[in-house]
Amino acid sequence: MASAVEKDRFDNSDNDEKIGTGVLGRENIDPSSDIADPDAGLSEEERAAADRTLLWKLDVQLIPWLSFLYLISFLDRTNIGNAKIDGLQEDLKLTNGQYNATLTIFFVSYALFEPLTNVLLKKLRPSIFLPIIMIWWGICMTCMGLVHNFAGLMTARWWLGVAEAGLFPGVNYYLSCWYKRSEFGIRAAIFFSAAALAGSFGGLLAAAIAQMGGVGGKPGWAWIFILEGLATIFVGIASYWMVHDFPDEATFLTPDDRARVIRRLRADKQSSAEHESFKMRYFWNSVLDWKTWCFAVIYMGCDGALYAFSLFLPTIIAQLGYASTTANLMSVPPYAVAAVATVFIGWLADRTHQRGLCNIFISLFGIVGFSMLLGSGKPGVQYAGVFLGAIGIYPCIANTISWASNNVEGVYKRGVTLGFVIGWGNLNGVVSSNIYRGADKPRFFLGHGVVLAYLVLFLFVGSVVTRFLLVWENKKRLRGDRDVWVEGMDEQEIEMLGDKKPDFIYHL
């Protein structure tokens, strides 16, 4: 049964009036609504059973469709790699530098517009915002199949980056409004595993669509863009009915279920966000927090490697001596293995509460994999290295985002921090899209070397250093060295400190 203190907090009408963006993602909830604990009087076993039923309902309603949207998003941003080996560069008469520029410009607009689109997600309902950006990038994707020159492709890629910018950070924020910290990692991993599935599915789909070459007078690579773009538009329209809004407006929840979502987040000490309205000090709290930059470095290591891998994997495999269709098909198994590894690490990190150790361990696979790509010219060794590279990169993306989110309290500070972390990681796509040069084929020493450096210096070393600093800070807090931070403060002021509270223990 809930303690008296917990029940008093839950029944406090002042708090109920202020439940806002932090817990439910929306502001100005009707203050007259009487939110009571629906499980008052139940035993702990009965409460746990009710929570399991609620979690299953949330998982079924939220995770599959959101993962499907990210699969489409990642498929649409990386299928240019499949189109390249089917003749895109030759047909548009692009130089190697021009082709790389079309990859680069996506990441520039993607990183620049990410903070703005996340604000729009908070201002609009998810069921409105997500369909709009999906239809937008579906149109951009379709137009990529209709271009005739470098300028047209550059324009389409720029707007594709603008339109896609709101999905990944927005969905991660959205999911944090539903799940406790210990439940978030596996959901974020399942959501992100769609990126690996997109690579796997994309190779199969591209190989099939490319057979349409000549239909309507268009080459196969053009049909890859056109058909996938039209499919995205259709899914975007359907998302108006398939994407649910924040808990206070989600129609699939009963009033009791809405109350349970709130109670569970409060029990997870995410209640401080209920009282927040945006102030610039939340922005500066994030900018001046060492954790923001540590996680940005770690995410830079895995995200920079991710984009290099996903954009150039078909080209790398093609250089092993396989035709375009075979190369697209051979890119499927590494992605499938990466998807399984991503979900497994998400589950393991949630169970062990050791996200840092998971990052450190799994990054070793990527380091070994790209060392194999650098050190051997044998097709079998290089193909095995591709598998290890995928295993070492993909799980660290979702795990790093969950690790960063777990260690930042306060919705606005968390939003700013994740914006910096994800934005900085995506900006490194500018580097990733320019390191696999045509002049370096077939071994691509420069590209493999840069990815290996990212994995060692930023992902592995960054994870080791960050975990050490978190352990060091936790010891100080447990000894009471940080208690002076709250001297002279009242209870509400202490609560507003978020992760700066002396009793906030960092997740390792």
TrEMBL record:
GO molecular function: transmembrane transporter activity
TM helices/strands, residue ranges: 100-121, 128-150, 156-176, 188-209, 221-243, 290-312, 332-349, 356-375, 381-404, 416-436, 451-472
Source organism of the structure: Lentithecium fluviatile CBS 122367
Domain Major facilitator superfamily (MFS) profile, chain residue ranges per copy: 62-475
Listed GO CC annotations: membrane
Pfam families given in the database record: MFS_1
Keyword line: Membrane, Transmembrane, Transmembrane helix, Transport
Region (Disordered): 1-42
Protein origin, superkingdom: Eukaryota
Record bears the keyword Ribonucleoprotein: no
Primary residence: membrane
Biased composition annotated in UniProt, kind: Basic and acidic residues: 1-19
Protein's name according to its UniProt entry: MFS general substrate transporter
The keyword Membrane appears for this protein: yes
PANTHER family documented for this protein: PERMEASE-RELATED, TRANSPORTER, PUTATIVE (AFU_ORTHOLOGUE AFUA_1G01812)-RELATED
Location(s) in or outside the cell: Membrane
PROSITE patterns: MFS
